[in-house]
Write a structure and sequence with these properties.
The complex is a heterodimer of chains A (308) and B (118). Chain A is an alpha/beta fold. Chain A has six helices and 17 strands. Chain B is 20% helix and 26% strand. The longest helix of chain B has 12 residues. Chain B has a single domain, classed as Ubiquitin-like (UB roll) (Roll), CATH 3.10.20. The chains are: A alpha/beta (308), B alpha+beta (118).
Chain lengths: 308, 118
Amino acid sequence: MSQEGLLRPGIAQLRVLDMEESVRHYVEYIGLELVGTGDDGRVYLRGYDEFHRHSVVLREADEAGIDFFAFKADNQKSVDRFRKNLEAYGLEVRDIPAGEQPGVGARISFTVPTGHDIQIFAEMELSDSPNAPETKNPYIWNVEPKGMRAQRMDHCLLYGPDINEVEKIFTECLDFQTPERVETPDGTLGIWMTVSNKAHDIAFVNHPEPGKLHHLAFFLENWSDVGHAADIMTRYDISRDVGPTRHGITRGQTIYFFDPSGNRNEVFAGGYTYYKDQPPRVWDHNNVGRGIFYYERQLNEAFLSVVT
Amino acid sequence: MADVDAINVFNITVRGSDVVAPCPETERVLIALEQAAPFPKPKPVNVGCRKGGCGACRIRVLSGDYTTIKMSRAHVTEAEEADGYVLACRVFPASDMEIEPAFLTPHERMEMRKAERD
């Protein structure tokens, strides 16, 4: 196996205003499995094709947004190596003990200049759900997925200042690559970074307020499921932002929409396969509209102004 | 089925615009504005999540009675709410209302929250 160190996005913890409404949105409509509720009221969710215990955590609060985004590493030795890299870079690394979330081992946590809490962990229990993916003569699923049929939590786009510094931290300390970027006369507008074969595992857009969430994305099987997701949105009066459309950047087929707390969600299918020997793709300010929304060829008003 | 005659309908006016959006007491002001034809100009609200979280439809109520449901404190603080600021998607009219746009760009919001902290 050639991928070492970080493997993939592992956990996103979101703040929601009303837990009951939010659980209905993520479970009934997006189609995640309700894994359980912790003693502190946090709710744990899993995409139907995810092997591990959970990937999305909801916490009730009076402001929407993202608490942290965590990546899963291959083992504790890698986590220790990343800690050394981050500390050598000058970042403060905090420890979160095993069990702070059920079924999850120790995590390290650090704040990047955009104001986001990024975390790394190596251990999470496999799902013991009867709906978890099978490993012996597997069916594609045990029970047919519901709602938008989200296979997994896929990536997030975060907004905040100083994204060039964030790119340095992710590439120099954590072995990320930046397959795609938007460069304007005012500087870098956005970076799309990956630690895997996916076109992106995390992205950042330059923005004056720190710590903001643009969207959390869920992976769908294909373009047909993107259409099915749009049908679900109209049926259940989910506020749609843009799409179904395609991104020029990553080439993903997509819909942006909102959860009941105003957090933007995305359903995402396709996207190119990235290899580390590919040269970076660069968009300029005259073409960024096509980069973000390939068919509309222009940004909508909300893209740069509505975040949680 | 509800008796539709029993539902009061109030008029929402936007300062600086000719449009009057009729809004039943059971409907949120944002939805009434979205359904008003033509859409009020200048645009009184941006439309985002329609669920009280994203702040796109922030307005100030200049006159009239209304009730609100839970909205994100990142966009309307308790002091601002006491001053008539609300998210249009979280407001039900209880009388005719006059409103004005109060959308904050991310930069304005940041400056305002910073000023409050200092």
